[in-house]
UniProtKB/TrEMBL annotation, chain A:
The chain crosses the membrane at residues 25-45, 74-99, 111-133, 139-161, 191-214, 234-256. The lineage of its organism: Bacteria, Pseudomonadati, Pseudomonadota, Alphaproteobacteria, Acetobacterales. GO terms for cellular component: plasma membrane. The keyword Transmembrane applies. Coiled coil: none annotated. The keyword rRNA-binding does not apply. Keywords: Cell membrane, Membrane, Transmembrane, Transmembrane helix, Transport. Its main location: membrane. This is ABC transporter permease. GO terms for biological process: transmembrane transport. It is a multi-pass membrane protein. It is found in: Cell membrane. It comes from Neoroseomonas lacus. Residues 73-253 form the ABC transmembrane type-1 domain.
From TrEMBL, chain B:
The keyword Transport applies. This is Nitrate ABC transporter ATP-binding protein. The keyword Cytoplasm does not apply. One of its GO terms (molecular function) is ATP binding. Belongs to the ABC transporter superfamily. It comes from the Bacteria. Gene3D superfamilies: P-loop containing nucleotide triphosphate hydrolases. Residues 6-243 form the ABC transporter domain. Keywords: ATP-binding, Nucleotide-binding, Transport. Pfam families: ABC_tran.
Amino acid sequence: MSARSARSAEALAEAARRRRRLENALPWLVTIGMFAVWEAAVRAFDIQPFILPAPSAIAESMVKWWYPLMTNSWATLLTTFVGFIMAVGFGLSLGVLIGSSVLVYRGLYPLLIAFNSVPKVAVVPILVIWFGAGFWPAVLTAFLISFFPIVVNVATGIATVEPELRDVLRALGARPIDIIMKVGLPRAMPYFFASLKVAITVAFVGSIISETVAANEGIGHLMLVASSRFDVPLVFAGLIVTGVMGVLMYWVAVTIEERTTGWATRGQNDPRLATGG
Amino acid sequence: MTPPFVQIDGVSMRYGGVEGTLALRDASLDVGDGEFVAVVGPSGCGKSTLMRLVTGLWPPTEGTVIVDGAEVDGPLSIAGMAFQNPTLLPWRNIIDNVMLPLEVVQPHRRQLRAQRGTYERRARDLLKLVGLDGFEAKFPWQLSGGMQQRASLCRALVHDPRLLMLDEPFGALDVFTREDLWDVMQAVWLAKKPTVILVTHDLKEAVYLADRVLIMSSRPGRIIAERRVPYPRPRRLEQTYEAEFQAIVHELRDRISEARKGEATDVR
């Protein structure tokens, strides 16, 4: 290898490193940029704080109300998480059932779709009548809104097992349960984890919807109280805290996905590292 | 004379009810214990249907299928299968893929935990036989198509099946890889002597590997002729270029052309 080609290889590696650094920094730059533009626009057009507060006003409000923000976010996080865990358990079982039995699929699917089309905000009053305002309606709304994507994805993963593979196993005397355990479930895992990313974010939506309708704590409740007092900066502080929690939960879901189903996305993150063919 | 290992007697197969497609009509064939039989025919003649009937994956519309002296009425558990598509599980490495049947088939399933070492050695020996030693811990996507197909063959063989069903297992490979795998297949058969039914549309492959080549007519499929291949084993690839070998291939090709012409007049 000549000195010249060594240099150009060096330069290429350096360029790749720069690009990676940029990719890592980009989410922060974009977020900070958005807040900067927001701040500038509020100041330039002299927008009133009760219409659109500036990020600086929101930050001030966050500092001032840090304790209620923290306790209420914690309450929301808890209800969301409990609802989400229920959705995972229920969604996984129902997905396996629907994916492995045509009869269950035919029987249940229309009902599921009808159910999923009902706006969950309309269900909250019923849940309040059953369980009283507070913890359980929020948990159940989070659950109801987030189990559907899990069911659909798991069912798809199981129903699309290659027929030849099914034949190989059946010709070995495998029972249907063997086929699901050995092939169907592992195969459905990438679909399952992809659905978790959707489910966790909509679970937040569910919790907060319920909290704004009937609750005595939670970030939704806090925003409702704040807006009734025209404390718009605090409402926005609640929104931002919710967004941050959503991103954190999403990140947790992605991390678990990458750890467990790396085989499904091999080499896609960085085509230069892909082996074989 | 011992009764044949696989006996197919007057079997018809129709898909999709009374008005459906007739895939097989009155097909009969016998395969002896430890015999290597190739089934060739024009495409869509029901070769793959035949395979699924023999392994009991589907019940025939008419007729009987007898394997090892018993009528087949559900999936057999003594069969190994390999297809054109290697269908390895991408989340398992090669050795775990090969050992999959041991987790399903009795009595291995019961003994697997206690005798894991023995079984693993068995899988490694098989991988060595097909030239995949050193690739045990690799994942399927790290292997070439030919190597995946070798692993798929190992998976079909690991539980020592008495019946091996191969549905165009070399069909998607390039010529050189395919010829390599013919020799792998021959070595495996000589080492284990299972009964093999190989479905293929490659006449050279059929003649090179099989004791007997069966020819099927176009749909609805029927066995219309058979040709015994006289060469002793082990056979060598050079033999495929000899005049006598070529003559057998040509003879088979002529019969298949006749079968296809017959179809044209039959239908109208």
